[in-house]
Amino acid sequence: MNAIVFALRGCSTGWLGAYGNEWVATPNLDRLAAESVVFDRHISDHPSQAGANRAWFPSGPPSGVKSVLIRANHPETDSPADFYAGWSEVFDARPQEGDASPLDPMIRELPNVLDRLASESRALIWIDIDRLLPPWEVPQDVFEAYIADEGEELEKIEPLADPEEGPFDKSDAAAWEWLHSSFAAVVTTLDAELGSVFELLRERGLDKTATWIVTSDFGYPLGEHGCVGAARSDLHEELVHVPLIVRLPNAAEAGRRVEGFTQPADVARFLEPDAQARVDVEPLLARQSPDHAISRTETSASIRTDQWAFLLPFESDRKPMLFVKPDDHWEVHDVLSLREDAAEELEKKLRLELKHEPEA
């Protein structure tokens, strides 16, 4: 078997210990990252489910391998029908009413999928997971661990399961804590669920024979810049900076951190059979533009370099923004008025690349 991919829809790097979060407990993903090559600046080019699908599979699933897509997501978050064409098999492990976790069906059925693929010399398992997209199933006990100080007794507060998308007043400390503690509980619960899957893969010996990949299509904004949800969010870190963790067979190159920019199209090259046969990460490093990354939506675009993040809205009533990198990680201080020269050069570069960008 060649590769097992966990597509954690809506996952931003800002919530994972492997990317520096010291508040949210993600021990299983942290362990995986310690055994892996971690790409520190993996930037979504089109931060949406459809955009990521096109980048990952521009011509459909890779040929020459047995390709299995496991839908461990709700039907409401399905991709367009054309995404499911070309797979050797599309296997449903949908969340079921009455299960303790939305991922229980996938955890139950994965051994059967692995059994059926045991004789395949080249196989790809792609697992779509929407656990981080609302509405969330938030365990009360995990949520309370985030809202209570040690030894403190609180009146019972229900976690926020379905936040309203749109404008968010981040100065409202209580609303901020409620929203972020609820999501932190979901992330920690997902990590525990993935831990049981990782253990199953190790028991099957797939830690020695397969590459494991954890990545995402986009991050789900949670009010960091005054908006919940991706629909009207600017192209800030929480939307476009997504994980890419690649665990090679036998944990080859464990602990390696890659600072250069990568984007979802690079993952597509890595999943090709010839690239997988190499058992290294060089296909991911062969970018034509490793010194910058461009993202865009219908209403805006951005370019990130070692020094800057420049955000360009296409709507006339919104202004461009410029942030210093890596110092201003969360893009809080707009310095465009102080560095108009840098912004002008970045805008020229961005518009030139957008001009030559292929049609989506």
Describe the structure.
- Helix content is 31%, strand content 19%.
- The protein is α/β, with parallel strands linked by helices and 360 residues long.
- The protein has an eight-stranded mixed β-sheet with strand order 4-3-5-1-7-9-2-10.
- Strand 13 and strand 14 form a beta hairpin.
- The radius of gyration is 20 Å and the shape is globular.
- The mean pLDDT is 93.
Features:
360 residues, alpha/beta, Alkaline Phosphatase, subunit A, Arylsulfatase, C-terminal domain, 2 domains, 8-stranded mixed beta sheet, 11 helices, 14 strands, 31% helix, globular
Residue share in β-strands: 15-25%
What is the CATH architecture descriptor of the largest domain?
Answer: 3-Layer(aba) Sandwich
Q: What is the gyration radius calculated from CA atoms? A: 20 Å
- The total domain count is 2
Q: How many distinct beta strands?
A: 14
CATH superfamily of the largest domain: Alkaline Phosphatase, subunit A
The N- and C-terminal alpha carbons lie at a distance of 32 Å
Largest sheet geometry: 8 strands, mixed
List the total number of helices: 11
State the CATH class of the largest domain.
Alpha Beta
Unreliable stretches: none
Shape: globular
Tell me, rounded to a whole number, the average pLDDT. 93
Order of helices and strands: EHEHEEHEHEHHEEHEEHHHEEEEH
Strand order of the largest sheet: 4-3-5-1-7-9-2-10
The proportion of residues forming helix, as a percent range, comes to 25-40%
